[in-house]
Amino acid sequence: MPIQDIRKSGDPVLKIKADPVPKIDRKIKNLLDTMAQTMEHANGVGLAAPQIGVSLRVIVVDAGDGLLELVNPEIIEAVGCETAMEGCLSVPGFYGDVERCTTVKVKAMDRNGNPFVVEGEGLLARALQHEIDHLDGVLFIEKATSIYRPEPE
Most buried of 25, 87, 128, 153, CB within 10 angstroms? Predict the structure, then answer.
């Protein structure tokens, strides 16, 4: 699959709870590759499969320490609380202050079906929570306490 168009707020696929991946096969591996390329092309930190129109529980995240591919991710521990500004490739031009946990542990499977746990804090924790929200049909603007639209320069 080549780079995909990112679905924007208002697209029904972004409001649906994504289905779990029953089996990791070539199709899922191709999806992971496409998502990583699409995220990189859009200069994003994370991307969820619904953002490219695929209602499956798959996310990719790169918060600066390399690409993470997570199939069927689930937050198993969350600690602390902080509010910070977020944006989203599906809500271009808008930013908002969103309260998130400061540290999270997420269990998932890798592209080969091996289970693993990733611990994240700071931007990685925020990105993991943001992308997992997408899998549940939730956009950051629904959680934001304030929303901003910067003036064009």
Answer: 128
**Which of 31, 8, 7 shows the shortest CA–CA distance to 19?**
31
- Number of C-beta neighbours around residue 134 at 10 A: 22
CA 131/CA 120 separation, integer angstroms? 13
Q: Output phi, psi for 123, to 5 deg.
A: -60, -40
pTM, two decimal places:
0.95
> Would you please indicate which residues are annotated as catalytic (active-site) residues?
131
57: domain CATH number? 3.90.45.10
- 85 within a domain of the structure (yes/no): yes
Report pLDDT digits (tens) over 106-131.
Answer: 999 999 999 999 999 999 999 999 99
Domains of the chain: total: 1
Q: Residue 45's domain spans which residues?
A: 12-148
- pLDDT confidence band for 2 (50 / 70 / 90): confident
